[in-house]
Request: fold
Amino acid sequence: MLFVDDEPAIRLTLPVILERQGFDVVVAASVSEALDIINHRSFDVLLTDLNIGSPADGFILVSAMRRVQPSAATFILTGYPDFQTALEAIRKQVDDYFTKPADIPTLVSTLREKVHRPRCGEPPCKRVSTVILEKSDEIVERWLQEVKADSRWASISIGNDEQPERFPRLLRDLAKAIEFGKTEIPAELMSGAAAHGADRCRQGYTIPLLVTETRVLNRVIATVLQENLLSMNLSTLIPEALKTGEYLETLLEESIRAFQAAQVSPQIAASQQSRINVGRRTKAKAS
Reply:
């Protein structure tokens, strides 16, 4: 492995950790030093800081490694991840990037996994629907964690044992609708949203909470998509991400309609029962 970073503390610590994990690490402190090493030695892995001397010049090393040693896996370390960095990483076909301070077990396992995976040379190609399907369990779990962290849910029981089966099914149906580019929401999605709204009414929700949980779900999906940008097809990403948001808004509207209907039904039943009771009392007095 060639490890490149201009911070002396990181050069002294991270290579030692990686060597303990079985990597043979060569260290460079600058772009020029790393370029010289790349031209004279062979590597399986390049792990480089994003901003070595100038902003984003880690990509210079990625491009050089791609040209000189195309079979080597390339990874970026960055302290300030953003959308533009991710897009550039995709364009350069970086295998992955990590945020400083890196989680060492994740870093090591990712390096090992991708080093031993043959490079196909194909550009990233996953669509939004594919990522939602692959990450559906993670999306539901992260959604639950965010919802439970909000104090407004303290009086409402939604335990892990009650983890809604409807959400994984919703994500599957949502992914299918996105994949086939449906202009109208499929009937199964709409009926599921209606059932969800009625259930939430019975569970003691309010409409603002119903809106909030949908907003959290949308945010979690967007976060998961951003975390998987390196494997995604950029030509379809933006329109499909927008369509995902539109679908969720439409489903929320249906849930609110069902929620309001469920609120009205008990009132109607209570009113009918009241009239029946009044009638009975009137008959009793007459007799």
